[in-house]
Amino acid sequence: MTKFEITTETKDHYSVTLHRIKALRDIPRHGVKTGDLGGWIEKEANLSQDGDAWIGGNASVGGNASVWGNARVWGNARVWGNARVWDDASVWDDARVWGNAELTHTQHHITIGPVGSENITVTLYRTADGHQVQAGCWGPGTLDELKTEVKRREKDEWAHRDPADVGRWAAQYKYIRKLGEAVAASWDAERAAAKAVQA
After folding, report:
1. Confidence at 89, pLDDT banded by 50, 70, 90
2. Rg (CA), the chain
3. Is residue 111 classed as helix, strand or coil in its secondary structure?
4. Which of 50, 127, 131, 134 has a 20 to 30 Å separation from 108 between CA atoms?
5. What 3-state DSSP class applies to 164?
6. Mutual orientation of helices 163-198 and 143-156 as an angle, nearest 10°?
7. HSE on the CB side for 189, CA within 13 Å?
8. Dihedral through CA 81, CA 114, CA 37, CA 15, nearest 10?
9. Contact 78, 99 (CB under 8 A)
10. CA distances (Å), 81 to each of 129, 131, 173, in order?
11. Burial class of 127 by CB neighbour count within 10 A (0 to 12, 13 to 18, 19+)
12. Distance CA 127, CA 59 (A)
């Protein structure tokens, strides 16, 4: 049974036309009723017609990204590139999931913000073979690459800023990195355990 339709309501997102979706059946697990407007997709392939997956609020999914199973993308979240969100995963708030991300569980990403001089959101997410970080407009990259970027900003962009602000921003990124390393290690262990079961 068809779960949603693409409405005539559109919006431009960085030169890509996104289309609002509308529910054609109830999806109780996500509080969706027939006729409710959902979030935004670039094309029908971004959201499976099967299962209870849903894109709500002002969330958007585009490129070759796909959402299926019982997954939910909502709030102001964005899922792009070749990212895949499925099973019971949830992506919400201002999370940004890009590239080759693979989220099968809500804890396959973490979002922290506001951070730094621009009050951005930093999202760390699991990929098939590691992790990626999206920090505002910067990224995707690794935690090590984020560390290098922060050092560059300290030297080039924050040099004439209030030292108290610079200290706070540097500390934010330092602890994001520490938390990110612990989370990424747990994902590595999860992948290793899954491979051991398959062997």
Report:
1. confident
2. 18
3. strand
4. 50
5. helix
6. 170
7. 6
8. -40
9. no
10. 16, 15, 25
11. buried
12. 20
Q: In the sheet where 72-73 sits, what is the strand order?
A: 54-55, 72-73, 90-91
The end-to-end CA distance of the chain, in Å, is 37
> 24: Cβ–Cβ under 8 A, 6 or more apart, which residues?
1, 2, 3, 4, 5, 34
Tokens of 89: 């995963």
Q: Which long-range contacts (CB under 8 A, 24 or more apart) does 106-110 make?
A: 108/187, 110/179, 110/180, 110/183
The pTM (predicted TM-score) of the whole model is 0.69
Phi, psi at residue 181, to the nearest 5°? -65, -40
Average pLDDT over residues 48-73: 95
